[in-house]
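Q: Predict the assembly, please.
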Amino acid sequence: MTIYPFLLAIGLPLVMALALIWPAARAMVWRMMPLAAVPALALALLGGAPVSMRGDWLVLGLTMGLDEISRLFVIFTAALWMAAGAAARHWMRDDTRATSFGVVFLMAMSGNIGLILSQDAVAFYAAFAMMSFASYGLVIHSRSAAAQGAARTYIGFVILGELALFAGLALATAQAGSILLADLRAAELSGIAVALMLLGFGVKLGVMPLHFWLPPAHGAAPAPASAVLSGAMIKAGLFGMIATLPLGLAAYAELATVMMAAGMVTIFAALLLGVQQDNPKTVLGFSSVSQMGIIALGLGAGLMVPAAWSAILPVLVFLAAHHALAKGALFLGTGAFAVQGSRGARVLIAAALLLPALVLAGLPFGSGALGKEALKAALYAGSEVWLPWLTLALTLSGVATTLLMARFAALLWLNPPKAPTARPDALALPFVTIAGASVGLPLIWPVLAQDLATPIEGAAPGALWPLALGVAIALGVAVHAYALRIGPAQFLAMLGAPYLALAQRAANHGAAKRRAARRLAHAVPRILAERALAWRLGQTAIAALIALVLAVEMVPLLWADEVPAPATPTIFDVLQGMN
Amino acid sequence: MNDPLVIFDLLLGGAIIALAIASLTVRDLFAAVVLFIIFGLLSALAWVRLSAPDVALAEAAIGTGVTGALLLKTLHHLRFVTGTLGHQSALSVTPHTPVPSGVIWANAAFCGLITLGLAVAFLGAPQAGPGFDALVSEAMPASGVEHPVTAILLNFRAYDTLMEVVVLLAAVIAVWQIERGLSDAPAPVMGEVWQGFARLVLPAIVVVGTYLLWAGAEAPGGAFQGGAVLAAVGLLLLLTRAYVPRPGHRGIARCAFVLGTVVFAAVALLVASGGRVAFEYPADHAKALILLIEGLVTISIAATLAALFHGREPVALRNKEDRNDT
Amino acid sequence: MTDAPLLPLFILLTSLLVSPVLFALPEHAARLRTGINLGMATLKVALVAWLSLKVAQGVVYDLRFEMLPGLEFKLQADPLALLFIALSALLWLITTVYSVGYLERGPHRARFFGFFSLCVAATVGIAMAGNLFTFLIFYELLTLATYPLVIHRGNAESLRAGRIYLIYTLAGGLVLLLGTLALWVLAGTTDFVPGGVLDSVAAERPLAAQLLFVVLIGAVGVKAALVPFHAWLPIAMVAPAPVSALLHAVAVVKAGAFGIMRVVYEVFGIETAQALGMTAPLAALAGVTIIYGSLRAITQDDIKKRLAYSTVSQVSYITLGVALASPIAAVGALAHLIHQGLMKITMFMAAGNLAEGLGVKKVSQMDGVGRVMPGTMLAFTLAALAMIGLPPLAGFVSKWYLAQGGLDAGATWVIALLLGSSLLNALYFLPMLHRAWFRDSAEGAEMPGRPRIGWMLAAPPITTALLVLVAGGFANAPFSPLEWTRFVVAIEYQE
Amino acid sequence: MMTIDPVTLAIFLPLFGAVAAFVAPRAAALIGLGTLALTAAAVGLLARDVIATGAVIVPLGGWGAPLGIELRADGLSVAMLVLSVAVGFLVSLSALDALKGPANARQRQYFWPLWLLLLTGMNGVYLSSDIFNLYVMIEIIALAAVGLTVLTGTRAAVRAGLDYMYASILGALLFLMGVGFIYLQLGRLDFAGLMDAEPTGALFAAVALMLVGLALKTALFPLHFWLPAAHANATAPASALLSGLVVKAALYIVLRLSQYMPFPSESLLTLIGVMGAGAVIWGGIQALRAERLKLLVAWSTVTQIGLIFVAFARAGEAGLTESWKAAALLILAHGVAKAAMFLAVGRIKDEVGHDTIRDLDRAPVRPTLAQFTFALAAISLIGLPPSLGFIGKWSLMEGAMAAGYWHWIAVTMIGTLMSVAYFSRVFAGFLRFDRVRGTVAEHQGWAVADAAPLALAAMAIALGLMAAPILNFIEIGYPFGEAK
Amino acid sequence: MTPDLIYGLTGIAVFAIGLVGALCAQDRLRRVLALKLCSVGAGFLLVVGAWRTPPMAPDPVPHALVITGIVVMVSATAVALALIRRLQTLESSDDDD
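A: Predicted assembly structure:
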């Protein structure tokens, strides 16, 4: 195996981006957009792992490769990019800034894939930076005031993050004496290096208080872009931490405490902030923040007790995949929903959206619930002091997510995002695929991850009650809000309205039937009476009754077994005697 | 078939049945009534064949004679007095919406079944079965009369006979009650010849009637037959206008109607003393009492039948009031 | 033995015989009519008091008269009967005062008061019926006597209501006839005997006994307004206020509830009924009725209809207490028979006053009425709070015993049921109180100054409201309804 | 001093009364009332005798059955006598008022003799023990009843009267034919002779003919066609007599025959019950449709007759020895209540001026007492306790239930509900006031004439309390116990 | 074959014919005729029942009964005919009512 497949995986999007500049090729490129990530996916699925290839003549000695972890990241990332590409192709069909979108989209894709495939710090940083900066173009795409503001925040945080990351990587490479990431992971890094890297990756991950860029950006970007931003790119933060930090080797208690506290705060603060939003995609963004809080919890636990890391790691990867698919599906679904023209189709899409939303919220047997349960199990190996709190937080995160999803659903229905005119079915297909994948993840994962899937397979299915509680609260809140809006009296009347309508309809139906029956009941006796009178049936009845009574009385007599012989001769006997 | 009379019986029976059918099916009502009268007479003849001369007499005189007269009078009334019929139809007194023939056939079928059933029952009944024969002959000596039918009518089952007279009384009261306020159109007047004939015949009829009454004690005949014959007198008087009922006659008429009933009932009660019950005539006075009752009852019957024929109560017509007397 | 063996008959006759007299009185002889009415009602209360004393001393009253071979018309004055008689006698007196005031210048007063007394006579007869046959007679009499009262106004609406009332109750009566016959044929007696008369039948032909139970309970359940036989009750609200008060508080629905008691305790016997497995479904049905009635009450805007649905719900407390087959619950049920009567009659008379004095017939018109008619609304408030079950009012006492009884019978769901029902009671009563006391009268609606309602209208609800207070506050005193109830239950449970 | 037994007097007194009333029309009313009072006294004496000694038998003419005719009074027949005399007396009182005034002079003149003849006939039926005598008696009843039917002389009345006449004659002739068959088979005509007869074809033929003839006369569905018009178009006292008493005569004969003849097989009884059920349902439907009050009441008679036959058939052949009591109770109940109801309707019609049910609530006049009477009578007819009608219905259902004949119970209950339905049509008319301008006062249109119907209606209710003694009484000497 | 057999069956036949007429006849007068036929049929039955083989005298009681029956029938016929006449008058005189 050579490095070329890796170069192809990274290069194809770049080549396509370049090709876009040439007008004649644009249509072709757009048509190929879904395929841009195919080499990466193929590499991950077909190439073995671990594998590491070196291209000495490139840069400072480019090293690319795959291990069990990165392979999985490539798979869900590439899949999500493919779906997003497919959606973007249609989303951007009539967009005047389609070309610029296409360029930054492909560049971000290239960077996202590249940073996962990279195995040396320089390449990693380069890819990471390319992805981050290219994404600015995605965020600002619409050029609206909101987008501009979001992009401003975004770029500010990106810069902050890149600076911190650069400093951290620099320190780390220095301390490890190697630019290979594997060496970084094996080295005793100083607290400051780790802290800087955590800061850099934390920006991407959106852990509070570094999250400010994330929800507006996700809200402002076009739906396909949001999907990859939320589904794929923020996972780069997680991947970065996994790939660069010496987790499982050394404990960084202070950093861990901060991380876990931030995670816990993130989970719930994101809820509080999220429910106040009125852009559904922004709500989804906050949901992502909240979810990344969970991941931060796991990371923090790993930082606190290195021994637990081996248990936590596969779970975090699974959670990343889960969130990527579910959230990607939700964003794509939002787009798909927005472009639907007919109400029926909207209802269908909304129903389909429920699936990833429920999975995200922790529907038992869904990937979200399994992930959380597996994480709880994994945390047993970690800090005993933190354990109950972490468990509680994880459990309640289900409620939080449910509420966010409810808010999202309500907003989506009441206030759908603007969308270009696009073929509704074309946007539905990528959404449905990813949604299906998100639902089916618990089944696919063991095949893909093999040994790493063990904790997931052994996890409990999860409890329904957080979800149910969330739903109940959401319903209560919704009802309350509605009641407040239209006034209690009217609300009560409305509550009763369907019942009353049903009762009214039943009553009407009954009344109609009764009227008909009454008409019949009036008509039949009248007709009968008239007929009987005209035909003098009463007279006929006289004869009929005599005949009937005679028959009733005499027929048994005729058929009786033994007729008692009359004592005196009968008239009939006389008659016989004559003959 | 050794008895030639059997053929006669068969023919007579057949004729009776044929006449019955004919009188119901013939289109002309007048013809129907005439056929019915013939039917009645033949029935009387048949009853003579069955050794029931009293019954035959009663049937001929009352069942056929008086009834026939009543029917003809009614027919006449319907045709000429009320004028509803005019020439329109001699077929029917009252035009109705026709009953579907299916219904009629159903009736006929049921009646056929009934005939069958009754015939079976009849054939299964004992021939010359038990009867009152022995009882009657045993009780005859104490009855006060010689003719058994009269004994039964006026002694053994006198209660029935009293009630029968009461039926007649009820009928005449009902008829007076029903018929009123009719326009007093002229009753049919007979020709001169008939009037003369009537004048000749009347005394003879009276004699015959009285004889019948008298004979009833020993031979066929009696109060009812006698009464019927006397009623014929009344009919003739009325028809010939030799007698025209007037309002002033009502009191007498009423007395005549009730005479038989009152005397019959009074005697029945009066004899009930000294341990006797009603109708228990003292043996030595039985014949006299019976004759008394019979005589007075005959007068009542005659008057009643004649009144039934005449119909309405003789009242002074006050046009408006009577017509609308409701 | 006893110095006045015919005392129960006299009590019956005080209202039965007065009825033809009232019919015959000319319309304008109002004074005389009022005098007769009040005199007889007072006499009856006195007689009942005397009778109570006698019965408490252990005197047994038993009057019989053979109507068909073996089948007797039988009056008895057992403690259970007395409970009901005392209630009806007392409330008759109060309602008579009220009706005299209410109908001051209305038409057809002779007819009204005639049927009114007949109605009370029927109620007393139902109470004292010594067997199901006699019960049936008075049960039908009650139907007939109340029908003219329901349609008293004589317009199309009241006739329609009357027709529905008649259909329900006469059908119920017919079914009761069937049940009585079946009881007669099966058991050979229709007597009310504590412990029941159907032990052997239940053992030999359980299916027949079960069917009989269903038939009898269904028949009396019509008057007790058990779901699904309740529909007549809210519709019958077109009647004049005193009639509604009497119908709902004393006569008709209580006759039904009383019938359920007689059937369960003295025809079947509580143990037999339990052995037949019929008490649990009955309790469930009562529970459904309690909740359903309350739910329907919430949405009613018409005051009387809201009260009517509340009655549907409240009367089933009695059924529930009977069906729980626990002596403690039975105490609650019997006490509720009295308490609910007092509470509901108060509310209906108050509602009548609102309609008479202010023309207020709907909940939505009640804004600020408390300030205009403080006495009436105070009575109403007291009764409503009692209904919700606030101690120390009467309603609390019966609910308390019902809850205890539920625990005693091992039916903890009863607690939840009672809590839920109290919550629902609050949901439909508190808004009324809120409107009456805490809201100003609606803008534009002209609230007349102090309405002129005579003392005859004002005093009765206040009196009954005080009784509500007393019955709850002095529940443990001798001769309180509760005490008497315990006495009765001891007999029925043969303790 | 003559001592005449009260049995004979019960028949002869009204007969003499009738004669006297016919001969002296001006004093007819006086004669009529006096006669009824005397007859009532005679019946009272007779009742005393019967209670004291059991059945009383008078062999008229001293001949004795089977040659002569015997009068026989037992509990049942005396009960029927009491019914006809008591109801008749009250109806007569009511007739005094209903037929007053010069416009009614003619009706008055004929009412009394016809009515007294009717009473003669009915008393004769109840005391007779000879089937041919019964035939004569029912003819007297028929003629007098037809006379009463057409008393008003309106076209509708005469037309109804003619139909009634045809039905009566035909019924009587069927009966007579049956008598012929009985004679053919047995050679005697007294009840005693029927008792031990072997069942043969001729007797069955007789049963068939007589049963149908009587059913026609008593208007059992589907042979009721003549009744509604006849009863609805007669004048009120006549309707009361016709509906309350006359149809009962034929019913009574059915009850008697059922005890004396090899009469009902199970299937025949079922047939009778089915016809009764048909009457209950069809009569109920027609009463619901009726537009005039009198017609409604007449149709109610059809249903009640049906109910009586259902009572007769309630427990099948085995229960027949008891079922007749239920039927008898219903006969008494209906006799009293229906007479009261027809009189009340007559009063209402007099006061209001019409009897169209639909317009009753438009009448500014509400004859309160008559309406009250109507309601009381309706209570008995519906069968609500404690009326006699209720007791009858109770007996009916009790026997049916004990025998397991649930279908008759169902029929009874359906009939009850239907009667509630059609009577409440009338109540609604009485009690609705919003279609009249101005107020309608209570106690309008009271008159002395209301006393008789009210008394009858009160009797219908109160007799229910006396059901036990009544039952004991009608069992005296029935069918042939304790005779001689 | 004896007279009782022949006339008995004749009587039954007449009765049945009368019955058909009484039930079906549309005409008022003819219905009266038909009823009268029925009565004659019934009379036949009784007279036949009374008949005894010749030397023996017939039973007189049924004869008396038949005579009574005939008188009763003529009374009923008279009333029915009076009703018919009255009705016809009413129907011909006015058409309201």
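Chain D has a mean pLDDT of 89. The two ends of chain D are 26 Å apart (CA to CA).
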